[in-house]
Amino acid sequence: MTYIHQNPLRQKLINKLDDWPYSSYPDLINKRTGTLPKKEFVLALFNTLEEFEDFSKIMIERIDPKYWV
């Protein structure tokens, strides 16, 4: 899921992960109230919402750019 959320940022289409209107990321971090993603399933992998946000942002720096399209 992190890969999908980060694609628009990697392609420089947005400045922040939650700027892309076609992503479930804003729903998962409670900045939008969409119903498509199962928040409970995704957020159960993390202790807090902040931990999920931090993970999502950190992975931008940790994944080698050669693996991004």
Compact overview of the structure:
With about 70 residues, this protein is mainly α. Helices cover about 45% and strands about 0% of the residues.
Question: Secondary-structure map with pairings?
Answer:
Elements: H1 2-10, H2 25-28, H3 39-43, H4 49-62
Quote the average pLDDT.
82
The helix-and-strand class reads: mainly alpha
Q: Taking Cα atoms only, what radius of gyration do you get, to the nearest Å?
A: 12 Å
Poorly predicted runs are none
Helix content: 40-55%
Count of the domains: 1
Strand percentage lies at under 5%
Quick one: biggest sheet?
A: none
Tell the overall outline: globular
Number of strands: 0
Order of helices and strands: HHHH
| Distance from first to last alpha carbon | 15 Å
Number of helices: 4
Summarize the structure in words.
The protein has 69 residues and is mostly helical. 46% of the residues lie in helices and 0% in strands. The protein has one domain (2-67). It has four helices and no strands. The longest helix has 14 residues, at 49-62. The radius of gyration is 12 Å and the shape is globular.
